[in-house]
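Q: Can someone sanity-check these two? First one:
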Amino acid sequence: MVHFSTDGRPLPTPTPITAPYFDGLRERRLVLQRCPRHGYFFYPRGRCPVCLGDDWEWGELSGRGTVYSFTVDRAGHDPALASRIPFAIALVDLDEGPRLVGNMVDCDAADISVGMAVEAAYEDVDDATLLGFRPAG
């Protein structure tokens, strides 16, 4: 079930599998599952997406990475996000391997580029903490 913030944005609904990820965000830590054979993976799930093993553990990552790709929403397709336009969403390759998606913050959309070094940014929205990325440094 999807629930929404007071400003209309959709918020995550943690499950027993995803709760450690969202708990980590609340603590300003990026934690992901790590398979002993294939490394970190995202999104949280019950089994490694490569070998289907269930012997993974949670591990903390640096939150640093580089922009793989990005898009800028200038039209406000989602009415709940219209007040935030323009905003950028980036695919980020973390230094430890997995690729995550998040809003770019603390920078102008015109300054974002592929290959740009970024770091995790955390935004408290009502009862949730969301992951975004900002320019590193």
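And here is the second, same format, sequence then tokens:
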Amino acid sequence: MALNPTLREQERERIAQHVLDLVKERGSEIPWTVAMAESGLTRARFEALFADYDDMFDAVAQTWLAPQLAVMEEVLATNLPPQRKMYEFFRRRFVISQERFRADPHFFSILCEMGAANFERVRSYVDLADHYLCELIAEAQAEGFFAGLEIDEALSLINQMISNYTLPDALIYLGDKLSEAKLARIVDTMFIGLSGEAGADASGVNTLKVASS
């Protein structure tokens, strides 16, 4: 009997969480055939839920990234001042990743490797985060920040400045060198100095000019 959409999604989420548990338990990525054998479902039922490995990976990624998506949406719904709102947008996701890394560095590293190997499958989550960040940039510009910058330009600059706090792999290499206090300083610095008012040759700086090649 076919599952209705709600029950099907619940079952996909249950299996996705089970796959995550298996990855943690065994310390390695779980192939589609192994996940099927360990699911407790018939082959026909499993294939009705997941057409192939990519489909299963999508469900696993959705389950793993759900907390980050939730906090981004929570921050967007707040009425915080632009600086604080931008900070919370990055801080809350960073805290989730930091807590997961500290709880089990090996498990965290394996999931980072899985994400890198399947980046095209998680690109939509990166794009969604960028979409939300563009909304925050537009709100900040409405209050006079990031003057003279196109939204896409501000997006690119901010992503490059803040990347150590958004790329999970950075925790593997930098660990406790990353902190909420340092993140706050970075966000403050962005709001103080990131603009295009200095002209095309020195966007966002006072005296330092980039020599033309």
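A (reply): Looked at the second one. Residues 208-213 have pLDDT under 50 and may be disordered. The CA atoms of residues 158 and 190 lie 8 Å apart.
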